[in-house]
């Protein structure tokens, strides 16, 4: 039995292929089977989205974001800082290296990222160019060109 949730029934009324569906499905299905670090994919309006990654214990220098060929990649790993050695009596906050990848839909752009209170917030926005927007086609009588005699 598969534990992958299919969102296909939600897109039955669409014609064509919407790659934003893939963003949600890939968020639900992590390729390497790991759930570290946990993250959310949020919708904040018709064209605004946010990915929130739990990055407790990481600093801005420990994280790297990159967009290449429509794929957003988030890498995290502790950097050596030369601090004094710490021996943990109990270490419950995982700080191991990670790599998350998200396939972005057409016209989705990363607007920025912020690390605040242990959460990495990645702001996404859909910017559809004028030529890709829907155009209203008027219905009416069409004048035919006059035939030359």
TrEMBL record:
Stored Pfam families: HSP20
Domain of life: Bacteria
Record CDD domains: ACD_IbpA-B_like (cd06470)
This protein's record includes keyword Acetylation: no
Record-annotated SHSP domain positions: 30-142
Coiled coil (UniProt feature): none
Protein keywords: Stress response
Family: Belongs to the small heat shock protein (HSP20) family.
PANTHER family from the UniProt entry: PTHR47062, SMALL HEAT SHOCK PROTEIN IBPA
Protein known as: Heat-shock protein IbpA
Species of provenance: Pseudomonas matsuisoli
Gene assigned in the entry: ibpA
